[in-house]
Amino acid sequence: MFLHNPEHSLPTGSARSREALAQACAVLGHAVEKGTCGAWGIATWNPVPLLPLVETTAPRPSVLMVRAGLLVGSRTLDAAEALATAWGMDTGSVRGMSPFGGSARARVWDRIDPRVFLRNGDGFSRTQAAFRVAYRLPHVDSMAVGTDEPAHLRELLGALAAEPDEQAVGEYRSRLRDRPSSQPTRSS
Predict the structure, then answer these.
(1) How far is CA 101 from CA 12, 53, 146, 177, in A?
(2) pLDDT tens, 74-88?
(3) What per-residue confidence (pLDDT) applies to 116?
(4) How far apart are CA 7 and CA 12, in angstroms?
(5) What are the sequence ranges of the domains in the chain?
(6) What pLDDT, in 10s, does the model give residues 35-93?
(7) Where would I find the H helices in the chain?
(8) How far apart are alpha carbons 137 and 78 in whole angstroms?
(9) What are phi and psi of 140, to 5 degrees?
(10) Phi, psi angle pair for 64, to nearest 5°
(11) Please, what is the Cα angle at 108 between 154 and 121, to 5 degrees?
(12) Phi and psi at residue 139, in whole multiples of 5°?
């Protein structure tokens, strides 16, 4: 079970927000203890406001789902990684979502070539490259995508054979951090 976008529903004021998040975590932790659900997690579009609210005494989620990919800003990527660290999660507990920033058919994917972030990018489409690189922005173990096209799903599954170029991804992250405005407006 996921607690979706708690950053949107928490009351204003950090003490009230911290308490509300801790209570929600406690309810979900209790549901696991009772066997009402097998596991719980938090899915957040923007983890930045959650960082100061992490309560070390509250039950910790077993899964964190965050936005991933080339269209995610540096602040959001850093916050996602810091949140996973604060909760003591390894990469296997972190999931990615929205690797295309909403659509694999968006015009941005015609303007950039994500294959530069793959070691063996020549045999893959731009869509496949963007999908595969999203696993490193931030580091995630699996990716949630939505599609009603079996061909698109097959294409994405084929992307798993691609090998990200860790050096190129690292350089991208460094450049993204160094930008004066490292937070894109629409997909931050």
Answers:
(1) 28, 26, 12, 19
(2) 999 999 999 999 999
(3) 96
(4) 10
(5) 1-59, 62-179
(6) 999 999 999 999 999 998 887 778 899 999 999 999 999 999 999 999 999 999 988 99
(7) 6-9, 14-34, 74-86, 108-111, 126-134, 150-159, 166-178
(8) 9
(9) -135, 160
(10) -125, 125
(11) 50
(12) -65, 120
CB 42 within 8 A of CB 154: no
Would you call 102 helix, strand, or coil by DSSP? coil
Matching residue, tokens 């066997």: 35
Determine contact, residues 68/97, Cβ cutoff 8 Å: yes
Which residue type is seen at 54?
Answer: V
pLDDT of 102 strictly over 80: yes
CA atoms within 13 A on the CB side of 26: 10
Question: What is the phi-psi region of residue 65: left when phi exceeds 0, alpha when psi lies from -120 to 50, beta otherwise?
Answer: beta
Cis-peptide, bond into residue 49, ω within 30° of zero? no
Q: Which class in CATH covers the domain with range 62-179? A: alpha beta
